[in-house]
Amino acid sequence: MLLDTASLYFRAYYGVPDSVRAPDGTPVNAVRGLLDFITRLVQDHHPDDLVACMDADWRPHWRVELIPSYKAHRVAELTVTGPDEEEIPDTLSPQVPVIEDVLDALGIARVGVEPYEADDVIGTLAGTAPGPVDIVTGDRDLYQLVDDARGVRVLYPLKGVGTLQLTDEAWLREKYGVNGPGYVDLALLRGDPSDGLPGVPGIGEKTAAKLIDAYGDLAGIMAAVADPSSRLTPSQRKRLDEARDYVAVAPKVVRVASDVPLPAFDPALPAEPRDPAALDALAARWGLGGSLERLLATLRG
After folding, report:
1. Could you tell me if residue 9 is left (phi over 0), alpha (psi between -120 and 50 degrees) or otherwise beta?
2. N or C: which end of the chain has fewer CB within 10 A?
3. b/e map 263-295, b = 16+ CB within 10 Å
4. Global pTM?
5. Cβ neighbours, 10 Å, residue 39
6. How confident is the model at residue 82 (pLDDT cuts 50, 70, 90)?
7. Is residue 70 within a helix (H) or strand (E), and if so which, with residue range?
8. CA dist 234 to 205, 207, 230, 239, 285, Å?
9. Do 187 and 247 meet the contact criterion of CB atoms below 8 Å apart?
């Protein structure tokens, strides 16, 4: 089981009241909410391995160089030497280091690699894992990794993590008319305002799906643009032709990396905390209470 950790702690932050606080009054709603999420996921799905995948760089410069608008609206501060600072609610950002410390003390694998996003770590792990893989994310971009043959599916939270949309190839085809790899072409043609991807003007989701169905993939669609005998409408041909520069670079931006150089780590779900003393100190300092106790009881089986 691969967790898109930031996606989940953002959901926890907005789903758990900020009246959930540490003894000193600091909000810990994202911390406790994420621990409750992990408890429920382990209880419901019984993974042997679980990896909390992290954004070491939420807006990699190699993506921004190709499409400058990529996630630009979410930048709080541009930096020269490291990752740009993301706009995060004031009471969430202090909770992220606490989440990291708690996961480390528990012994739950936490993997982030610069200059890559959590999506790229997930893509690399999903491509190399020997068995079935469940990806837990609120980010539809990861639908591209769905692969029935390899047992890779996306569990998309609809309400907390108790109600998950199980996304496999049949669901993708019914909803979007594409398979996993086809979702990359659909997404880049349609565009995605939440990621700052402009898309091809005038080509919406339904049109993109029809073009993929007719011509197979992005390369087939662009070959049809150059073929005067193809059945593209004049407006489609014009819009796609004018978007050639964008279409040439967008796949590298939209497609998750599959070759992230991962550090050595143990993905096995721990039965006991790696560092009980550190975990006790964190529990007392941040008032993790029942959320941590429930997770420990679940891990111990």
Report:
1. alpha
2. C
3. eeeebebeeebeeeeebeebbeebbbeebbebb
4. 0.94
5. 20
6. low
7. none
8. 19, 14, 10, 9, 65
9. no
